[in-house]
Amino acid sequence: MFSRFFSRVGLLAAPFLAIIMAGCSKADMTVRQSTLDPKGPVAQVQFDVFMATVWLVVVLFVLVGGLLVYAVIKFRARPGDENEPAIVEDGHGNPLIEIGLITASIGSLVIIAIPTLNAIWYTDDVPAESVPTSKLSVWYPRVEGGRENYAKTVEEQVLEVDVIGKQWWFRFEYPQLGLTNDAKHSVPNEMVIPKGVAVRINLRSEDVIHSFWVPKLAGKVDLMPGRKNHMWLQASETGHYYGQCAEFCGDSHAYMLFRVEVVEPAEFAKWVQRQKAPAEPVAVGTKADKGKALFAAKSCVMCHNVGGHFGAGAFGPDLTHLASRKSLAGAWLDNRDPKAQLALEQKTGNTESSVEVDRATLKANLIKWIGSSGVAHGADGKTLTKDVKPGNRMHYYKMFNVAGLRETNQKFTAEELDDLAEYLLTLK
Questions:
Q1: C-alpha dihedral sign at 166, 169, 174, 179
Q2: pLDDT 10s digits, 320-377
Q3: pTM for this entry
Q4: Structural domains for the chain
Q5: Cβ atoms within 10 Å of 175's Cβ, excluding its own
Q6: How far apart are CA 357 and CA 341, in angstroms?
Q7: What torsion do the CA atoms of 178, 212, 336, 389 make, to the nearest 10 degrees?
Q8: How do beta strands 229-233 and 327-328 pair?
């Protein structure tokens, strides 16, 4: 009875799987964080290894599964078999078959191991063949309009980006170009790189283990406290790529996202200069001016830097060009109009296409983030709200043993939140 049941299940399995696979379209494979849609050489190599393994496993599955189904059908119990003598196998097996199976197993492992090892060596660091076309001097003028973009000592190097993981956001620094936290020019949560250029990524952590992962550009690599780690990536197409921390790191691990903006080399040079520029002055007597005063009074300046306005903060993200970023709160809140963004992605069929920052959306996100993060009250000071990122250190943070800053618990009225948002909107 059971033999007949399993044989029928086996016969139905193949068409059932075929129906399931038929439902998989290309659109299902090209979502925002898909490893099946590589857009760079590192991701492509890793994808090729994955597919080689998949096809090998499919072949093994068909062979083993086919033999199993054949054996179940061929040797299933039939009416009257109880009167037949039992089948007794003489000996202890067939040495030729056993040796053949062992050899085939070893061969299968070798087939997987060779491309895997090649991929590990290839993805470890920028390959020698990519260095000549990726040197700074090749695609990024050292002196432009009488301005030195970088020192002569690094012109033969490839672009390097230092990625620093923190609970729960990423900080990006470009030491060769002067965009560093020490120079008050770091870039939080949105890394910008030039198209078609190999970039070396230096991975560091300032607290716990994190993991850097941009599925369409490269596989995940860990950021280890007290240890230097590295990887490299290269984007073959411009666009807005989505990444996130892939190693559990605390309360808001699931909210620890980041973005990679890939632009043309000429646009990258302009972006660097914009990042070095200070924030624009705020008009006196405006709501933004009131917000600027609140920014200082509410101790925001103790953690955040705003170039040209405030320069003490280095613990939290640099806010000098906050209003130009497409995301907020460790890239958890999207500053673009959701309907316009979805419409663009559907029109182009490309999840890397992106609309510009929407002022209304950004302002709503700022009020939501500042008004509810770390505290249990709403914009009106009464309504209970859910933290945007549980455990985050805004508003309520025990600052180790720094006198007077051991514990803060900031609260804002609806008017204060609006003033703060208006000030932050001027930081483009």
A1: negative
A2: 999 999 999 989 999 999 999 999 999 998 899 999 999 999 999 999 888 876 555 4
A3: 0.83
A4: 2-78+90-124 (1.10.287), 134-272 (2.60.40.420), 287-425 (1.10.760)
A5: 15
A6: 10
A7: -110
A8: unpaired
